[in-house]
């Protein structure tokens, strides 16, 4: 504990009150947002940030996990601008989406608002949300072939959207002119403004009732406490250097794998994450900026050490080595639109390396791809549509349970829009929305199952299809002897039969005719522990439920299932004993 | 019901079955509390009734039940099958692609219907309601036979887009019923004709899963009542706070999920209204959780859906009750960062708090209250234990809390109560401040055994106006059963643009929905003063996916509602502005869903029957004992709560004791006994 004069009880009370403010800002935006990426998938986040450093003070509990890590950099970018140019006033609101200056990718719009007390800056409130379309070559922004950020959409550095409470309408006009769906963006912007209005009101009420000094002391104590907890957590791990490597399929332009390599060092109560051995910056959109890399390491650590509080303090005992010579620390105009795929791989290698440090708590890889699928075109009445969504897959086997079937990625708590909402909104029809058998990595605790989504184009003019996915060549890994999961697969129908993408899970501008279908099959999670030691009766159940096929039961688990679905105990014993002998 | 009969409310909870009898003729009431018999709740139910008198003489029994909720939480429903559209059998298991916790990726989900009992058939309806593929009835029959052969007791039928056109589902359900006469066959369009396939299939599947369980429970109760010569009406409280017939409950058991807690909120609203309070926040503190609900302008808030457990989603209107994991059994501990935490881990009722001496040695909130002298160790509530072990509670707090924090035992116990109060206060803020309600306009109504201990502190912490402690906090839900109105809700997804609205078509739909709901209420066989038809639309700006609830200022009069587009627009903008700071002029509006409720208003219940008869304040005084407040032991007056006459004011510090609850009046507060025998705790003047 830090040397605070505040009693633990007041601290606990203030912690709850401050988190509630951020939670309420989240809820306001979800409910009033226009695009389903925010409203349904909750691709948004709010919090309170330090006046001078921008460090995260308090985060909501419902915000998108990756933003929880990234927002501090966004506020810092605004602070740097103010320090350079001056002129900060009460009622100002800053807006930007610059991925190289505290952003993530161009779709993520940040609003940052100073909170003044007695004429002096007290802290910042910030809101981030994923807007549906911001121009660029591909509707929805996930341009798998981009080689410069200019092809991905409009880039806006930190600018003043509002001065002294008055919104600059010219900026709104520029934003509207640069999107395929200006009304949706306008609705989302208003939702974010609603959230900031509310956050300010609540924070001022809190400061009025507790006093600024008490709240400041509490904020300092939270940060110190998080640092203490993280140091204690690291101390409990054995000293050493732990290596883990994984690959991205390709960058969408050149068909060469990209290495994500981590050397994780534990020394006493400090941890170093060194990504120096990773691939160089790539031509396509799979790069990320350093701030994004740090943010996703934070997400990975929070998933493993769940009781460490979400503020800047927990990064204090951690050193990051992310050279600009790697694809994890790029500068403009290197394209970053596919950042979601890269950060999933970074998170995976952190899980993997920590799994070596504490095998008893190791978790196998989750499915590990966003699968940003965009189906766009024109309805029969001529109006334009863009159906854009992310898809689910299996989570990894773990010491306690099999992985979850059809979960979301570790970077988000996103729910998937209902098929009925999509069918009511766009000229498409789902022909399959199902679990994918044999997609999970085998293990003592197997992975969760991935999914199969198959969609038919209903419009007379068909549809254009874009996909930015991964795991088409490198499957989600197992741990402690568990198997890897199935690969991601994508196919579309043509007059000449079914086609698959030359670059595994990335395509742009594929045209499908009315009545033709596309099919996405997502990976499951990796397996935990040896599949050959999994209880044979569990496999009988897996086969009965259709999670595992009879042949996979034999090949992956060494379990022989009779025609009637029962266990052939004798043959199973023989097979399993033969393997261990 | 006869205006001169005996009405009984029965609330079966996890530990106790509470009963409330009101004799309309004699204008007398009686309460009873018997242990619940977990697993065979009918036993405690009948035993409790018999304690209140001859069952044959009762005119009406209204029941709040947790049988459905428990069957869901413990996964003890019936073996159920699903027949569904080809390609969609896994919707139930895939959920909305969520996970149990934000942080941490462990945990799995097992749906209530196994995958091999979810069978697909050819059929397809499109989003516009057109039928692309007629249903293959031979395949449906074959699927039903397969499910029957596999031992299924109930069947749910769920087709994609059935909200837009239920023809295929209707044909399928008729085919199954013809082949397999069985009341436990349901179609999703009969349960919830609303867009969003997961929510619809989940609600339908859980309903089918519960039907045999709730049906056999209600059947058993009815048989037992019949055997004792009961001739009156037997009704069930729904999660929406309204009462339904047992026939409806057997068909729609999913609507009983929050039956008991909802009855408590209904009673709270009625008690508050009679006491002159239109704005209250109820707080029910049990062993493991604290349930909070808000009543504004005399009305409780209805939520559209709830999640019983991860992946078990029920979408049907229910009283919005927020729950946090803080109860009397919540365990206090010091975390790695040195911060004191209370809950969410709970010692429950077994082994229970340390002071129960049943094997737990980690301190709970109840232990802190015992050590501080707030709970009388010699008179434990419920009467199961003779005495509470204060020394053991003290030792546990010393070891686990005082030592690590460097506090003395009393300060540590006080800190546990303060942290727990802060969590409860947070829950209260969540339903009030965060929804734009100023707590200074609200009174807290604590009920359940434990909530009353903390009422005064919560009033001060949240800045509430006062606390209103009902005369019998421990049997509030049973009282609610006696008071609740009859109610039936219906929902229809329409997806109509307001710009091009055919008001006549909407009116016709509203009339037919209203009449259908009204018919169910009037067929329940209960006398009501009148039946109100209430309409609400779910609407949004085109482009938004979430909707807001728009109450319509119209009703069903002489075969029409008189609805038109400008009434709707005005109602929408009023509702939108109440939720968000900015309207979005120029963006078209859409009506997504029509919600219709028929409410049969029961004759008003006169709560003056509950008022105390005592006139001698002195007789209520039980002496004093030392109770710890803040920094010190204070010599505190102890009162027998039920014997304090109307109009008396007791200054804090004071403890008011009664068999089912203990009221703490903190220093600086006072307790006033109102005309109905409620205790009003407010700041001392």
What does this molecule look like?
- The complex is a heterodimer of chains A (581) and B (685).
- Chain A has 581 residues and is α+β, with helices and mostly antiparallel strands.
- The longest helix of chain A is centred in the middle third of the chain and has 29 residues, at 182-210.
- Chain A folds into 3 domains: 8-227, no CATH class; 362-534, no CATH class; 536-580, no CATH class.
- In chain A, helix 4 (169-177) crosses helix 5 and helix 5 crosses helix 6 (212-235).
- Chain A has helices at 8-32, 36-39, 65-85, 169-177, 182-210, 212-235, 290-304, 339-357, 419-425, 536-544, 550-557, 569-580, and strands at 44-50, 56-59, 93-96, 108-117, 120-130, 159-163, 166-167, 240-248, 258-267, 270-274, 318-321, 372-378, 384-389, 428-435, 451-457, 463-468, 489-494, 497-499, 506-512, 517-521.
- The termini of chain A are far apart.
- In chain A, strands 2-1-5-4-3-6-7 form a 7-stranded antiparallel beta sheet.
- The model of chain A has no long low-confidence stretch (mean pLDDT 92).
- Chain B is an alpha+beta fold.
- Chain B has a domain at 485-601: Dna Ligase, domain 1 (2-Layer Sandwich), CATH 3.30.1490.
- In chain B, helix 9 packs across helix 14 and helix 10 (365-371) crosses helix 11.
- Chain B starts with 5 loop residues before the first strand and ends with a strand.
- Classes of the chains: A alpha+beta (581), B alpha+beta (685).
- At the A-B interface, helix 1, helix 5, helix 6, helix 9 and strand 14 of A face helix 3, helix 7 and helix 12 of B.
Short note summarizing the structure:
Helices cover 31% and strands 22% of the residues of chain A.
List keywords for this structure.
heterodimer, A: 581 residues, alpha+beta, 3 domains, B: 685 residues, Dna Ligase, domain 1, 9-stranded mixed β-sheet
Shape of chain B: globular
Mean of residue pLDDT of chain B? 90
**Overall tally of domains of chain A:** 3
Helix content of chain B: 25-40%
Largest interface: A-B, 91 and 70 residues
Indicate the low-confidence ranges of chain A by residue numbers.
none
Multimerization status: heterodimer
């Amino acid at each position: 504990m830090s040397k605070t004069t505040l009693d633990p009880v007041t601290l606990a009370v203030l912690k709850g009150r401050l988190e509630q403010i951020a939670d309420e800002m989240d809820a306001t935006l979800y409910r009033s947002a226009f695009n389903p990426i925010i409203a349904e998938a909750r691709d948004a986040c709010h919090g309170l940030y330090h006046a001078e450093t921008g460090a995260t003070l308090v985060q909501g509990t419902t915000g998108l996990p990756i933003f929880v890590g990234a927002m501090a950099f966004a506020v810092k970018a605004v602070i740097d601008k103010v320090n350079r140019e001056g002129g900060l006033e009460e009622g100002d609101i800053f807006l930007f989406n610059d991925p190289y200056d505290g952003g993530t990718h161009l779709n993520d719009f940040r609003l940052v608002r100073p909170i003044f007390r007695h004429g002096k800056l007290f802290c910042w409130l910030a809101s981030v949300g994923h807007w549906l379309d911001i121009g660029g070559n591909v509707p929805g922004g996930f341009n798998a072939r981009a080689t410069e950020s200019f092809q991905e959409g409009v880039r806006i550095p930190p600018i003043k959207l509002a001065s002294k409470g008055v919104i600059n309408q010219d900026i709104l006009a520029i934003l509207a002119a640069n999107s395929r769906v200006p009304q949706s963006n306008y609705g989302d912007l208003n939702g974010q403004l609603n959230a900031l209005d509310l956050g300010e009101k609540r924070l001022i009420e809190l400061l009025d009732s507790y006093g600024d000094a008490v709240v400041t002391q509490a904020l300092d104590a939270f940060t110190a406490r998080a640092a203490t907890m993280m140091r204690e957590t690291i101390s409990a791990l054995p000293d050493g250097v732990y290596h883990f490597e994984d690959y991205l399929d390709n960058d969408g332009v050149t068909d060469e794998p990209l290495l994500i390599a981590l050397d994780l060092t534990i020394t006493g109560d400090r941890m170093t994450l060194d990504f120096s051995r990773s691939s160089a910056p790539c031509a396509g959109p799979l790069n990320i900026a350093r701030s994004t890399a740090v943010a996703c390491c934070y997400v990975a650590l929070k998933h493993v050490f769940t009781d460490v509080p979400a503020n800047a303090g927990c990064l204090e005992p951690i050193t990051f080595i992310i050279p600009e010579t790697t694809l994890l620390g790029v500068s403009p105009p290197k394209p970053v639109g596919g950042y979601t795929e890269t950060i999933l791989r970074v998170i995976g290698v952190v899980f993997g390396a920590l799994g070596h440090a504490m095998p008893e708590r190791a978790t196998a890889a989750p499915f590990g791809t966003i699968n940003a699928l965009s189906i766009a075109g024109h309805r029969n009445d001529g109006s334009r549509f863009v159906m854009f969504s992310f898809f689910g897959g299996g989570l990894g086997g773990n010491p306690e349970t099999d992985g979850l079937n059809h979960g979301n990625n570790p970077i988000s708590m996103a729910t998937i829009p209902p098929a009925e909402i999509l069918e009511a909104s766009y000229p498409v029809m789902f022909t399959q929305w199902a679990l994918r058998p044999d997609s999970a990595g085998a293990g003592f605790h197997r992975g969760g199952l991935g999914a199969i989504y198959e969609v038919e184009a209903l419009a007379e003019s068909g549809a254009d299809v874009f996909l930015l996915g991964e795991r088409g060549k490198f499957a989600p890994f197992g741990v402690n002897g568990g198997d890897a999961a199935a690969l991601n697969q994508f196919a579309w129908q043509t007059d000449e039969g079914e086609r698959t993408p030359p670059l595994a899970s990335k395509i742009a501008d594929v045209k499908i005719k009315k009545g033709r279908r596309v099919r996405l099959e997502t990976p499951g999670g990796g397996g935990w522990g040896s599949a050959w030691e999994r209880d044979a009766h569990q496999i009988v159940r897996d086969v009965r439920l259709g999670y595992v096929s009879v042949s996979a039961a034999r090949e992956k688990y060494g379990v022989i299932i009779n025609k009637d679905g029962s266990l052939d105990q004798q043959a199973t014993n023989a097979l399993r004993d033969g393997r261990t002998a | 019901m006869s205006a001169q009969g005996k009405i009984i409310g029965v609330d079966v909870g996890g530990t106790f079955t509470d009963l409330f009898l009101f004799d309309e003729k004699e204008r007398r009431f009686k309460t009873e509390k018997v242990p619940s018999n977990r697993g065979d709740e009918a036993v405690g139910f009948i035993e409790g009734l018999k304690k209140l008198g001859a069952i044959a003489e009762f005119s009406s029994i209204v029941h709040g039940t947790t049988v459905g909720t428990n069957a869901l939480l413990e996964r003890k429903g019936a073996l159920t099958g699903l027949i569904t559209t080809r390609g969609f059998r896994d919707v139930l298991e895939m959920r909305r692609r969520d996970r149990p916790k934000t942080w941490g990726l462990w945990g799995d989900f097992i749906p209530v219907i196994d995958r091999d009992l979810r069978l697909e058939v050819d059929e397809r309806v499109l989003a516009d309601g057109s039928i692309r593929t007629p249903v293959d009835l031979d395949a449906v029959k074959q699927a039903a036979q397969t499910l029957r052969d596999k031992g299924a007791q109930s069947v749910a039928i769920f087709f994609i887009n059935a909200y837009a056109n239920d023809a295929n589902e209707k044909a399928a359900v008729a085919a199954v019923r013809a082949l397999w006469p069985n009341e436990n066959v349901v179609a999703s369009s009969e349960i919830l004709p609303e867009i969003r396939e997961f929510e619809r299939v989940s609600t339908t599947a859980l309903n089918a899963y519960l039907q045999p369980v709730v049906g056999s429970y209600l059947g058993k109760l009815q048989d037992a009542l019949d055997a004792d010569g009961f001739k009156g009406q037997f009704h069930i409280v729904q999660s929406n706070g309204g009462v339904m017939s047992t026939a409806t409950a057997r068909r729609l058991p999913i609507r009983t999920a929050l039956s008991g807690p909802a009855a408590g909120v209904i009673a709270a609203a009625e008690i508050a209204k009679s006491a002159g309070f239109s704005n209250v926040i109820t707080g029910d503190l049990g062993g493991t959780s604290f349930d909070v609900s808000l009543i504004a302008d005399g009305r409780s808030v209805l939520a559209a859906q709830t999640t019983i457990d991860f992946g078990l989603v029920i979408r049907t209107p229910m009283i919005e009750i927020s729950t946090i994991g803080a109860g009397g059994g919540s365990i206090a501990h010091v975390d790695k960062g040195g911060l004191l935490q209370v809950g969410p881990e709970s010692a429950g009722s077994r082994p229970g708090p340390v002071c129960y001496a049943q094997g737990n040695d980690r301190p709970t909130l109840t232990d802190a209250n015992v050590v501080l002298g707030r709970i009388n160790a010699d008179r434990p509530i419920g009467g199961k234990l003779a005495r509470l072990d204060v020394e053991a509670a003290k030792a546990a707090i010393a070891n686990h809390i005082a030592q690590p924090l460097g506090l003395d035992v009393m300060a540590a116990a006080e800190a546990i109560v303060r942290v727990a109060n802060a969590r409860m206060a947070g829950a209260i803020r969540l339903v009030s401040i965060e929804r734009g309600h100023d707590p200074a306009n609200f009174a807290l109504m604590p009920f359940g055994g434990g909530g009353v201990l903390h009422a005064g502190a919560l009033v001060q912490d949240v800045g509430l106006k006062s606390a209103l402690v009902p005369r019998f906090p421990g049997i509030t839900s049973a009282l609610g059963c006696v008071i609740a109105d009859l109610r039936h809700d219906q929902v229809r997804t329409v997806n109509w643009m307001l710009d091009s609205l055919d008001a006549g078509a909407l009116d016709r739909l509203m009339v037919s929905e209203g009449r259908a709901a009204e018919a169910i209420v009037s067929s329940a066989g209960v006398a009501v003063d009148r039946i109100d038809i209430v309409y609400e639309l779910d609407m949004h700006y085109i482009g938004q996916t979430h909707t807001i609830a728009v109450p319509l200022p119209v009703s069903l009069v002489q075969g029409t509602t008189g609805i038109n587009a400008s009434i709707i627009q005005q109602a929408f903008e009023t509702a939108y502005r109440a939720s968000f700071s900015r309207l979005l002029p120029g963006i078209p509006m859409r009506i997504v869903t029509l919600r219709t409720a028929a409410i049969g208003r029961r004759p008003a219940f006169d709560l003056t029957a509950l008022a105390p008869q005592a006139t001698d304040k002195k007789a209520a005084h039980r002496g004093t004992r030392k109770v710890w407040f803040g920094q010190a032991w204070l010599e505190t007056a102890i009162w027998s709560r039920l014997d304090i006459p109307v109009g008396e004011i007791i200054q804090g510090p004071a403890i008011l004791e009664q068999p089912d609850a203990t009221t703490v009046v903190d220093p600086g507060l006072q307790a006033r006994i109102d005309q109905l025998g409620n205790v009003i705790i407010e700041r001392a003047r």
